[in-house]
Specification:
The chain has six helices and 32 strands. The chain is of the alpha+beta class and 515 residues long. The chain has four domains: 31 residues; 119 residues, Macroglobulin (MG2) domain (Immunoglobulin-like); 141 residues, Beta Barrel (conserved putative lor/sdh protein from methanococcus maripaludis s2 fold); 81 residues. The longest helix has 34 residues. It is rod-shaped and about 160 Å long.
Length: 515
């Protein structure tokens, strides 16, 4: 064996020897019985470990105090324990010391004479005075009877998850009590966000021509109704060209002038009996026809000019201004600067976003629910919060969709801040008038395992249990439960993932406390 191998072997033997000693010293047979108590007030959580209490025998109480406003360790103050005889009399007070480290306090002292006591822990800290009433405790006359009574206590749940105070204080962690609440009943159905009727418009080319603009509107731009988006310069060929219409009007004017001159000449000759009366009648008909043609030509020209003016004509007087027909956001841009388009070709797509439509697919058996709805909310995948919606109008065709087997129901809803995106899919939460009074927990407390909901219930200061629950109703951030927990139980609402990791590693040795 080489020197290096001998050195490694020596190190391993030393480690094994140390481990063996540690295991022997940590063996349950050598450990004295340890009791614990957990209690909550409105301000603090107490977790205290202590030995069976024997009269006049010194005992150490390991006190762990957590502030419930942030679930961090209390790092100042002094605790004291009061023992008050059940039959009355003066209280015995054991006073503790400041924390040896944040959250960890000690109270050392001998309990009073054997008997039954009401006991309490009092904490006096800067800006905080709190009192934990711990019920009744027995002080035994001798160590043997104390240990015998301690051994009668039920063993800890082997399935319980250990998550130490030191871990709770340094990680994100919080619990909340299960409280009774009156919650709305609801149904949850697939839904999508669609544009309102009349809330979507495709801006098309008003005539064949070339598209121009100072700058091209970008996708996502918010536009107002009537806002210019660009110009379309019509092609200069065809009878609809303005120059052609102006020429037609001028020709009609010349024809009218000639007809009037001919009428005047015919009437003068008729007065001299040089022509028959029929010639004057023909001249008058020619004037009437010329006047009608002039009026038509002028009307076509005026109509063209008015169209150009209403469209905001370009300086050339021969271009249409393309305007937004509705207020909304530009969802698509098909136009290209300088490109030519035929009449009716799409240039822009605008969608109204301040108000949208929530289209819910309600299963046929629940179709009658639509007559008794009070509120609507929308759950978006990836978001933990539920979006409450203000529905101004609800309508449906009263016809089941043959493809989905559901009744499509449309809710017109406000969309402040554009939180709802057209085309978005999610779950509509439709609240009914009925209410249930049930135990409730925050939504953050509910976890899923293979589709089954469960919570982590705190069964002791450092012990947690997985409790499968049955959900009765969901109302915003509150979940009503049928079973699985009881009123007053405390459940983890922040840090459940760390507790889950602790459950996976519960076979590993815990560090324990240092006091």
């Amino acid at each position: 064996m080489t020197r290096t191998m001998r050195a490694h072997a020596a190190i391993w033997l030393t480690m094994l020897g140390t481990l063996a000693c540690t295991r022997r010293s940590d063996a349950p047979k050598a450990d004295p019985a340890t009791l614990n108590v957990t209690d909550w007030t409105a301000h603090t959580e107490l977790y205290m470990e202590y030995p069976p209490l024997v009269a006049a025998q010194p005992a150490r109480f390991a006190v762990h105090l957590t502030k419930l406003d942030d679930f961090k360790a209390l790092n100042a103050g002094t605790p004291s324990i009061e023992f008050t005889p059940e039959r009355g009399g003066a209280a015995t007070v054991l006073r503790g010391s400041p924390p040896s480290r944040p959250g960890a306090f000690r109270v050392d002292g001998a309990p009073p004479a054997a008997g039954q006591y009401r006991w309490a822990l009092v904490i006096d800290a800067p800006g905080l005075t709190d009192r934990h009433e711990l019920g009744t405790v027995t002080v035994f006359p001798d160590e043997a009877s104390a240990k015998a009574e301690a051994e009668k206590r039920p063993a800890d749940d082997p399935a319980a998850i250990a998550y130490l105070k030191e871990q709770q204080w340094t990680n994100e962690f919080a619990t909340a009590p299960v409280r009774e609440a009156e919650l709305r009943t609801s149904i949850r159905v697939p839904a999508s966000i669609e544009p309102l009727s009349g809330g979507e418009a495709v801006v098309a080319a008003p005539a064949s021509g070339r598209f121009t603009a100072d700058s091209l509107v970008a996708i996502g731009t918010t536009v107002r109704s009537g806002q210019p988006l660009g110009r379309l310069e019509p092609r200069l060929s065809g009878t609809d060209d303005r120059a052609t219409l102006a020429s037609d009007a001028a020709q009609a004017q010349v024809t009218l002038d000639s007809a009037r001159a001919e009428q005047t000449r015919a009437e003068r000759l008729l007065a001299d009996r040089a022509v028959p009366a029929r010639r004057v009648e023909d001249a008058r008909r020619a004037v009437a026809t010329a006047e009608a043609r002039l009026r038509a030509a002028e009307a076509r020209l005026a109509q063209r000019d008015e169209t150009l003016r209403s469209g905001g004509g370009a300086a050339s007087g021969n271009a249409f201004t393309v305007r937004a027909p509705i207020a909304g956001r530009v969802a698509d841009v098909f136009a290209t600067l300088g490109a030519s388009y035929d009449e009716g070709a799409p240039l822009f797509k605008i969608v109204r976003t301040d108000r949208v439509e929530l289209r819910a697919q309600i299963p046929a058996p629940d179709a009658t629910v639509t007559r008794d709805l009070t509120d609507v909310a929308f759950e978006v995948p990836g978001r933990t919060d539920v979006l409450p919606l203000r529905a101004d109008h609800r309508h449906d065709a009263g016809v089941i969709d043959s493809k989905t087997g559901a009744l499509p129901v449309q809710f017109e809803v406000q969309n402040p801040g554009g939180q709802l995106l057209v085309g978005q899919s999610g779950t509509a939460v439709l609240y009914k008038r009925d209410r249930l009074r049930v135990p409730a927990v925050p939504k953050a407390a509910i976890l899923l395992e293979a589709g089954r909901p469960y919570v982590f219930a705190q069964i002791g200061g450092e012990r947690f249990a997985r409790r499968y629950v049955e959900i009765a109703t969901r109302d915003g951030d509150q979940i009503g439960l049928k079973s699985g927990v009881s009123l007053g139980d405390r459940v983890v609402i922040r840090g459940a993932y760390e507790v889950q990791l602790a459950s996976a590693a519960k076979g590993l040795p815990a560090e324990g406390h240092v006091h």
